[in-house]
Design brief:
Strand order of the largest sheet: 1-2
Distance between the termini: 112 Å
Low-confidence stretches: 407-412
Number of strands: 2
Helix content: over 70%
Order of helices and strands: HHEEHHHHHHHHHHHHHHHH
Oligomer: single chain
Largest sheet: 2 strands, antiparallel
Mean pLDDT: 82
Radius of gyration: 24 Å
Shape: globular
Amino acid sequence: MEHIVFEVGLALALIAVAGFISLKLKFSIVPFYILIGMAVGPHAPHFGLFDLRFIESAPLIEFLGRVGVLFLLFYLGLEFSVGRLIKAGKSIAVGGTIYIAINFTLGLMFGWVAGFPLKETLIIAGITTISSSAIVAKVLVDLKRTANRETEMILGIIMFEDIFLAVYISIVSGLVLSVATSLGDVLTSALVALGYMLLLIVIGRKAVPFLNRALNIKSNEVFMITVFAGLFIIAGFSETIHVAEAIGALLVGLILAETEHMKRIEHMILPFRDFFGAMFFFSFGLTIDPMSLGGAIWLSLGAVIITLIGNVAAGLLAGRQAGLSAKASTNIGLTIVSRGEFSIIMANLGKSGGLMDILQPFSALYVLILAILGPLLTKESKRIFQWMNAVIPLERKPKVKAPLPEQETHSQ
């Protein structure tokens, strides 16, 4: 353990290199963090002090990655308060339901056809259903599409996905992390997890006036420590009753978003989210041996194809029911096709539950492909729509009426 600080510094240097490359290429940073992690690890060479295997520091890096998940979900909760979720419009709720129903059903069918047991199938369905809000938001900003008509629906679907994710992880973590074997035990674990989540939200909303007073702290140092204490205690306690610690962090964020201190917390949390989030993706890459990806190639490619079909169909249906054009509706499906942090969280949940090892390389390859493909498809959405419209008429051009022939004048 004598070189652990040096190893962590080396890991941060590699992460920084991955960040520079992504900035140079003007591309999503997530796949580069994962790739640099996959390039090193137990299978990598070592040169004296420069030990790229990260054997001594692996447990610490893994823990820092776990903290990264907490900050990612906590920040997400701050962005979408409970009150904002309740006020979500009808079209967003309908569009989100359509999106989740199509992609989740396809994910279940894919896992079942591939021959996976029930628990693994539920994890796979979660991996293939939820978009990456980080990548989608970055793409919308980079392509200057924040003012587009369909952007409200895109953000609404992402918000709806987050609600689904919170409920789904609560239920699945109760199933996967518990020692339940019978159907009754499984249902009990799932109900306990869901009940805990709802109870925490209700108590948290009632406690908002108290939190406003309690967090009225002048010292930024004490304020930060107080918020972090609440975050880690609730996230850690959640895990003790078989609710994913990430969901505990999300719930804390949703509750604190209701307080008058939300902006201060959000400003304070950003550097922690970015730093520990980068460690999370890097640590995930460390767990993947590139040589093990061979067994997951066809499975990952099949899931990618299913996701592309499901996203385009869901985007068209969700957009049209909201009164958007076929072109704008196609943009919806292509923009939210990227998968990232949430898919990895689902895969890590499967790992924590001792499920099949194939879930890790499958999710890594699946996320890498869609994290790269998603921004490209969004950028070329106009050409893709034109091609689709030529093959399957989605939006007919209005017929131009022929001019009436001029009437002849007759002299009397």
